[in-house]
Amino acid sequence: MLGLGELEMKVMDVLWASESPLRVRDVLERLSGDRAPAYTTVMTVLDHLHTKGWVTRSRRGRAYHYVPARTREEAGAGLLREVLDSSGDAESVLLHFAESVSEREHRLLRRALDRDERRDEKP
């Protein structure tokens, strides 16, 4: 995702996959790969994610517990909104995007548009 480094994205993946808040140690244990980062590295990444507004945290005893501030889907939609807002020509960007979507994505977009039209028709 835009604005996130590789390790930040891995940490967010761990948090999005969790059903409960996680401590730094919990995130560290769930990170996969050949080179596990140091505890302090994960702690720093989580602090940066908190500063950037990607996670919220609450103190329980001596440790912070972290949760994503938004779902993965909400974060993706927010990034798309940022791209459109910063493009200078949202209409052209949307038209180019629409030309590049897969058949499945086309069906999803059509379903969302149809749902929106039905909502507008209700009194």
Describe the structure.
The protein is mostly helical. The chain is built from 6 helices and 2 strands, in the order αααββααα. It has helices spanning 6-17, 24-30, 39-51, 72-87, 90-100, 103-121; strands spanning 55-60, 63-68. Strands 1-2 form a two-stranded antiparallel ribbon. Helix 2 packs across helix 3 (39-51) and helix 4 (72-87) packs across helix 5 (90-100). The N and C termini lie far apart (39 Å). 12% of the residues are buried.
Distance between the termini: 39 Å
Estimate what percentage of residues fall within beta strands.
5-15%
Largest sheet: 2 strands, antiparallel
What would the principal axes of the Cα set say about the shape? elongated
Helix/strand order: HHHEEHHH
| Average pLDDT figure | 91
Q: Radius of gyration in whole Å, from Cα?
A: 19 Å
Q: Order of strands across the widest beta sheet?
A: 1-2
In which range does the helix fraction lie?
Answer: 55-70%
Extended strand count: 2
Q: Which oligomerization state do the chains in this entry correspond to?
A: single chain
Q: Which residues sit in consecutive blocks of at least 5 with pLDDT less than 50?
A: none
Helix segment tally? 6
What class do helices, strands and sheet pairing give?
A: mainly alpha
